[in-house]
Amino acid sequence: MTYEDVKASSNVVTSTLQMNNFKIHVLFDKGVTQLFIASRIVANLKKKITRVEKWFIIGTPLDDVKTNGV
Prior knowledge:
Strand content: 25-35%
Shape: flat
Structural class: alpha+beta
Helix content: 10-25%
Largest sheet: 2 strands, antiparallel
Number of strands: 4
Distance between the termini: 23 Å
Radius of gyration: 14 Å
Order of helices and strands: HEEHEE
Number of domains: 1
């Protein structure tokens, strides 16, 4: 999603969130059913990454398909 797409959408908001003195660029979409966070952000927040036991498939508009096992 481009900056212009965000500005034109009534469902999406972009902002900068500060957590533990670490600035994070965020994209809030009120219509989402899943939440994703970059592993580097988790590492900077000193949080543990845990693997999800339930398998799921993620598709993007660019037909880039990923599973939680990859």
